[in-house]
Amino acid sequence: MKINAVEIKPGNILEYEGGLWRTVKTAHTQPGKGGAYMQVEMKNLRDGRKNNVRFRSAESVERVRLDQKDFQFLYSEGDSLVFMDKETYDQVTLPTDLLGDAAAFLQDGMDVVMEMYEDEALSVALPDQIEATVVEADAVVKGQTASSSYKPAILDNGVRVMVPPFISAGTRIVVDVYERTYVGKAG
Predict the structure, then answer these.
(1) Using CA atoms, how far apart are residues 58 and 139, in angstroms rounded to an integer?
(2) Gap between the Cα atoms of 27 and 89, Å rounded
(3) How many separate helices (H) and strands (E) can be counted in the chain?
(4) Rounded to an integer, what distance in angstroms lies between the CA atom of residue 61 and that of residue 182?
């Protein structure tokens, strides 16, 4: 779908120079001399490169819509992750680095949303929060105030997060996947 350069918004997916790019930032500039333009910061969805491009206001660009499909995480195999399409039961194998740091939070049977373009997976979104068990937590130091004192803890998936002093090993907690922060005790 062709759109005018002035219609580009952060989060849009654009087809530019043969690649797919996600718009990160946009700025509309009208210099005193010359024509107005859009300064667009983009990130390549396939290899992660960043690029700053200046589009003239009258220029049109190709905006791409990604399909979102529900998948279920099955298992990891070396540097690969295996997912199953919840509608067709087809299995898809993706490299672990496509998920980045969030891959540590994958759990067997977890439902995820995959963004696809022409049957090629470009990104995988996990739930924002998951439950995990604390396997190791430092002891509380006497005299610490309860108000902003957090202690380090290690979860069952090996991720290290800061937790309040009352959390001990064996406690199930809710963790924000993308911020890697403690949210609360599991219900």
Answers:
(1) 63
(2) 43
(3) 0, 16
(4) 42
Model confidence at 128: pLDDT above 60: yes
Shared-domain flag, residues 91 and 41:
no
Task: Return the closest-CA partner of residue 123 out of 20, 40, 14.
Answer: 20
Query: 99, 93, 67, 72: which is closest to 81 by C-alpha?
Result: 93
In this predicted structure, what is the pLDDT of residue 148?
65
Residues 7 and 60 in one domain: yes
Residue 100: pLDDT band with limits 50, 70, 90? confident
CA dihedral sign of residues 140, 145, 146, 151: negative
For Cα atoms 71, 74, 76, give the angle at the middle one, nearest 5 degrees. Answer: 120
| CA–CA distance, 142 with 145 (Å, rounded to integer) | 9
118: CB partners within 8 A, 6+ apart: none
What pLDDT, on a 0 to 100 scale, did the predictor assign at position 14? 94
Q: What angle do CA 33, 35, 41 make, to 5 degrees?
A: 110
For the segment 101-124, the average pLDDT, to the nearest whole number, is 90
Give the Cα separation of 11 and 118 in Å (integer).
19
Structural domains counted in the chain: 3
Average pLDDT over residues 75-93: 94
| Same-domain pairing of 6 and 55 | yes
Domain extent at residue 95: 67-125
